[in-house]
Automatic annotation (TrEMBL):
Main location: membrane
Coiled-coil ranges per UniProt: none
Topology in membrane: Multi-pass membrane protein
InterPro entries according to UniProt: Phos_transporter
Keywords annotated in UniProt: Membrane, Phosphate transport, Transmembrane, Transmembrane helix, Transport
Location of the protein in the cell: Membrane
Species assigned in the record: Szabonella alba
GO BP annotations, alphabetical order: phosphate ion transmembrane transport
Protein name, per record: Phosphate transporter
Highest taxon of source: Bacteria
Transmembrane segments annotated in the record for this chain: 38-59, 66-84, 143-163, 175-194, 200-219, 239-257, 263-286, 307-325, 353-372, 392-409, 415-432, 465-490
Pfam families xref list: PHO4
Length: 495
């Protein structure tokens, strides 16, 4: 073989090797791409298994420890789904307004959700385990255990489906529907606390409408007093500290009711007093802060966004704390009731959440948010209506005030309904305001905008509106039917 032939052979050999290596590289990339969607479910499954192992340790030598282990696994699954679906309502507006990156939002939410669950969580558990179905109708501990297990499974499956479909649903109503459905199959229609269910049904309308109205009113205030003022920066220096103080006072009152009630009894007037003092102090501190931030800003609308960015981030963190305090019970309420029934032989008269059960809920909320939350955060933050820091702050402020008012009135409202309702309220107000301005400008210029053109200028995506409303309406009946079916299967298996 000549030298030329040898070189040519070597060259050909290297070309073949390059092609083979290229195929292998493409195969590796394809494998990584295919495997990537499986990473989050795999980590979620590992979390559920870890929780089951921990439940086996903490349940001790109980003869019914397998029930506790199974309930803990389903409770972890439920907590993951709540983190994936519900937490988006708190962080979505801040992300949609570009005040937070997705990574920062997830990190802040994880910390504050966990803190809220561990510090102030657990007050709603007795309502979930004993307020929906009459406790005496489930006096048999085995019937009570399987009813709670059915409710937990049904609610978790429904929230998982809703997250997959991209619909932010109420986790509170999911659990309530599950308990109701299992209770009906276990003890009949008369076992259900129908007045309570009537109040919950009323909250489907009250909470989103109230959230939307309050958010729209604050947006109208910001537009009238700040955006359209001749001296926008001067107006912002007067009004932004007031808006920050209202948010701080509202959360101080809420946290006084939630957290201090575990140490000392706090009445609503006392909580409002605490909120007023905190709001006044925060206002005094906000005045110089806003003045410093506004120095050198141009007198235009775009400059105002900077003044709302920090308050929006703080409000998102506080909303996450409040959500962790309130909605952790949706994940561990049925689980705590099962543990109570297995270990103490009681039903639902009074349930105390063990610390390890609360830790499962707190960790599950954060873990579910990190693994599965970005999809709904993007949808809530940017796909319903366009948000900027001012609009997003109105949403957060509305959510805080509505939750406090509802807690005071004893209404079982959903934080999901309130936050999403506030986003729709902001969007529909923008539509109304834009059309009103278009008509006024048309009259001034003597050229009216055509009706067809005004109809085309929609600032709220109607497809999301209809999908979300449908999911809200279906949640309680869907989880009730699903829980009833699961309980019926349990009864067949048990013989």
């Amino acid at each position: 073989m000549t030298q030329t032939e040898t070189d040519r052979t070597g060259i050909n050999r290297w070309k073949t090797l390059d092609k083979d290596l290229g195929r292998i590289s493409r195969l590796e990339l394809a494998t990584q791409y295919v495997a990537r969607p499986l990473i989050a479910p795999g980590l979620g499954l590992a979390f559920i298994v870890l929780v089951a192992v921990l439940a086996a340790v903490f349940s001790g030598g109980s003869p019914d420890r397998l029930i506790v282990i199974a309930a803990a696994a389903f409770g972890a699954y439920m907590a993951l789904n709540i983190g994936a679906n519900d937490v988006a309502n708190n962080m979505g507006p801040a992300v949609g307004a570009n005040a937070l990156s997705m990574g920062a939002a997830i990190a802040i939410a994880a910390v504050f959700e966990t803190a809220g669950a561990l510090i102030a969580g657990g007050d709603v558990v007795n309502t979930i385990s004993g307020g929906i179905v009459a406790p005496e109708s489930l006096a048999d501990s085995s019937v009570f255990i399987w009813a709670m297990m059915s409710a937990l499974i049904a609610a978790a499956l429904w929230i998982n489906l809703a997250t997959w479909l991209g619909a932010p649903v109420s986790t509170t109503h999911s659990v309530v529907g599950g308990v109701m459905g299992a209770g009906i199959v276990a003890a009949g229609l008369m076992a259900v606390n129908w007045p309570m269910m009537g109040r919950i049904a009323a909250s489907w309308i009250i909470s989103p409408v109230l959230g939307g109205v309050i958010a729209a009113l604050f947006l109208a205030l910001i537009k009238a007093r700040i955006e359209y003022a001749e001296d926008k920066i001067g107006a912002a220096r007067r009004w932004v500290p007031v808006l920050i103080a209202i948010m701080a006072g509202a959360f101080a009152a809420y946290l006084a009711l939630k957290g201090l009630s575990k140490v000392v009894r706090v009445s609503m007037p006392m909580a409002l007093g605490i909120g007023g003092v905190v709001g006044g102090l925060v206002w005094a501190g906000s005045v110089p802060m806003v003045r410093r931030q506004s120095e050198g800003l141009e007198n235009r609308k775009k400059s105002l966004k900077k003044l709302f960015a920090v308050p929006l981030v703080v409000s998102a963190a506080l909303l996450s704390f409040a959500h962790g305090a309130n909605d952790v019970a949706n994940a561990v309420g049925p689980l705590a009731a099962i543990v109570h029934a297995v270990q103490d032989g009681g039903s639902a008269s009074r349930v105390v959440i063990p610390l390890w059960v609360m830790a499962i809920g707190a960790a599950g909320l954060s873990f579910g948010l990190m693994l599965f939350g970005p999809k709904l955060i993007r949808m809530v933050g940017g796909e319903i209506t366009k948000l900027n820091p001012m609009r997003a702050y109105c949403v957060a402020l509305s959510a805080a005030l509505t939750v406090i008012v509802a807690s005071w009135l004893g209404l079982p409202v959903s934080s999901t309904h309130i936050a999403v309702g506030a986003i729709f309220g902001v969007g529909f107000y923008r539509e109304w305001h834009a059309e009103r301005r278009a008509r006024m400008l048309g009259l001034q210029k003597g050229k009216a905008v055509a009706v067809e053109e005004r109809r085309r200028r929609k600032l709220v995506r109607r497809s999301h509106f209809l999908t979300i409303i449908a999911a809200w309406v279906v949640t309680v009946p869907a989880t009730a039917l699903l829980a009833g079916g699961v309980f019926f299967l349990f009864r067949l298996i048990a013989g």
